[in-house]
Amino acid sequence: MVVLNDRPWNMEAKAHLLNDRITPNKYMFIRNNGKIPEAIDLKTWTLKIDGEAVSQPKSYSLNDLKTKFQQYTYQLTLECGGNGRSEFNPPAKGNQWTVGAVSCANWTGIRLRDLLDDVGITSNAVYIGYHAADVHLSGDPTKEPISRGIPLNKALQEETLLAFKMNGEDIPLAHGYPLRLVCGGWPASTSGKWLNGLSVRNKVHDGAKMGGSSYRVPCETVAPGSKVEEDDMCIIESMPVKSLITAPKSGALLKGGKSLNISGHAWAGELNVSQVSYSTDFGGTWQNCELERPVNRLAWQHFKATINFPKTGYYEIWARATDSNGISQPMVLPGWNPKGYLNNACHRIAVKVV
Amino acid sequence: MEQNFQKQIKALTGMLLAFFGAIVVLIGGLLYLKSNPKAFNGPKKETIVPLETVAEDFDKIENGIHVATGFVADEHMELVVQNCTSCHSAKLVTQNRMSKAGWQATIKWMQETQNLWDLGLNEEKIIAYLSKNYAPKQQGRRQNLSDIEWYELEK
In this predicted complex, what is the ipTM? Predict the structure, then answer.
């Protein structure tokens, strides 16, 4: 794991550490905006639901949530909106993520829509904003480090969970213990950690990091380095198609043999991945990989291939996924944006056949 | 005179020892984290302490880098340390590259939304330090793969 920042905590996995089909806790990236809450008391922890569009505000204890609603488990892809930021030119401000701010763990909890049914929301509901127990870096108790959310249609999806468990056990503290909103396929900042409140809004939620250049990109594409007015920025929703070669680790020296097995994962936000190809000649030619179906909607899909190299030399293996709408990953950086989001350029590893 | 010299040597040796001690603690912490990635798993706060170890000799400069923070040693660095690292890690600064206007906008954003105080006359000096030592460089649309650690793949 690579630590990008230790106050607040931000760390990502190297590509080869993400080879497991289900991401284990130890290889899941951490992106925190504030300080991790301390002294969490499960007995007094409550989730308060309020906002303009609830019939009346209501609070639930953790025990209420765990006992009053049916629980579900889904494997859900969470990727940081800024994964790949380090490649943008001109450089974009923020933690300089490379490729490892993505994970696909099993999440267990209740459906947000079941909870909203129980609360009773009014017909003017538009957006769900979350509130959490983390502490602003400045220590100011009146400030929330981050308070983002999702539109109602995402909130009502079967897979949108209020989760208590990650990979079958209590969610680790750094990942949101004891309660996390989990919205697979969307920027992971929508999956609020340490959840203690939800606001059902009659407009787009206006919490911390919902405006400005945070988790937003120019509504119309712009030339690299452009200044973009606030009104011309749009909130990122579903993440774009992407893939990662997780085996072998970049830098493999192949002795004697000229065949190599590669494997990895591909994901496409709200969509499925329909094809993954690889190239060993910088995109000159592409060959198909074997691609599995997702274990459930919003889970990443596994691919593999056996490559036969024509002769010795330095090679780069490039992987390119295509989503169910026929959109493929670009080989170079996609559209520049002020904060360097949504870099889904092809992943590549280096190999030498000697 | 010779006694003075010996004193200086002694003082230097002491500083060096303290410095190496701090490095050992830091490496130990990193190794611990590497071999115990589960350090992040438990719901206990104290498990993430090892990385926060700070070098004992705070003023130590090595190869042009301020060891305790990782900042480039240059004029006005101390202002950056004072004003930028009380809320967040120096890593949030050193991993970024921005023009003068970019750093200025970042400071303005922190003042408007993150409770950063008025930097007064120091603002210009801080921006001068940042835009000189952490300036953007052209890297094109895709760079060569770098830092490849070659290894023999076992079949």
Answer: 0.83
